[in-house]
From TrEMBL:
This is Pimeloyl-ACP methyl ester carboxylesterase. It comes from Microlunatus flavus. One of its GO terms (molecular function) is catalytic activity. InterPro entries: AB_hydrolase_1 (IPR000073), AB_hydrolase_fold (IPR029058), Sec-Metab_Biosynth_Hydrolase (IPR052897). Residues 5-227 form the AB hydrolase-1 domain. Pfam families: Abhydrolase_6 (PF12697).
Length: 238
């Protein structure tokens, strides 16, 4: 059975953020799925993606962008996951949170442009949604992306619950599954050193640096992402 590529989006984005990469993978004949991530909590999001993956049945290569990297770190322990690819993503260690991993490095440009909005949780308690200022989104999140596309992405972003920043990873799938990493060298959302540190700690099989790439490298240089995914597929299918 061929390996299915499951693309997991991150915070302040949705499945459409993967559109250029999805198109190239489909054109190359790969089986691809791009599920929506609730972006409500790391625990809940990882459980949702794990169930999605397990229901596919056959082998799966999980590809996570940004916060999606944290999600695949936990969800990737599913038995049918055969490999992990991190794209400008968080490769958390067990018992580590997004905040803890980021805390060891200088802040990116993102922190000054976050918007916090209250919402009500199902149990009636208050929660907080975090998103990026619409005006700042193109420069901070989508630098190098076509301005018209960046504008659409800015007004359609999917917020992340503040809860997700403090929750710790219960698993570290990269410990037992082969992994690959892509660093967006001009990332203004995540300090590229956060990506490099996580990838080095995980002893990934290969790490690719894309010079000049923004956080949304999937739009600015989708072929670089596809090349790494294709390399990973060749390895896990060998």
């Amino acid at each position: 059975m061929p390996t299915t590529v499951v693309l997991v989006h991150g915070a302040f984005a949705d499945s459409a953020s993967w559109a250029p990469v999805t198109r190239l993978l489909l054109d190359a004949g790969h089986d691809v799925r791009v599920p929506p991530v609730p972006n409500r909590s790391l625990v809940g999001d990882a459980a949702y993606i794990r169930r999605f993956v397990e229901q596919l049945g056959g082998p799966v290569l999980l590809v996570g962008h940004s916060y999606g990297g944290a999600v695949i770190t936990v969800a990737g322990v599913a038995e049918n996951v055969v490999g992990l690819v991190y794209v400008a993503g968080y490769a958390l260690a067990k018992e580590e949170s997004l905040g803890q991993l980021q805390g060891g490095f200088p802040d990116s440009d993102l922190a000054a442009h976050l918007v916090y909005e209250p919402y009500t949780l199902p149990d009636g308690t208050d929660g907080t949604d975090v998103s990026v200022e619409i005006a700042a989104f193109p420069a901070v999140f989508a630098g190098g992306v076509d301005p018209a596309t960046a504008q659409v992405l800015a007004v359609s972003q999917r917020p992340l619950s503040a809860l997700a920043f403090g929750e710790v990873a219960s698993e570290e799938a990269w410990r037992t599954k082969p992994s690959w990493g892509l660093v967006s060298a001009a990332d203004h959302t995540i300090n590229p050193d956060v990506e490099r540190f996580g990838y080095t700690r995980a002893q990934m099989r290969r790490v690719v640096e894309v010079e000049g790439a923004p956080h949304l490298v999937m739009h600015q240089n989708p072929q670089a992402v596809v090349d790494l995914v294709t390399e990973a597929l060749a390895a896990v299918d060998a």
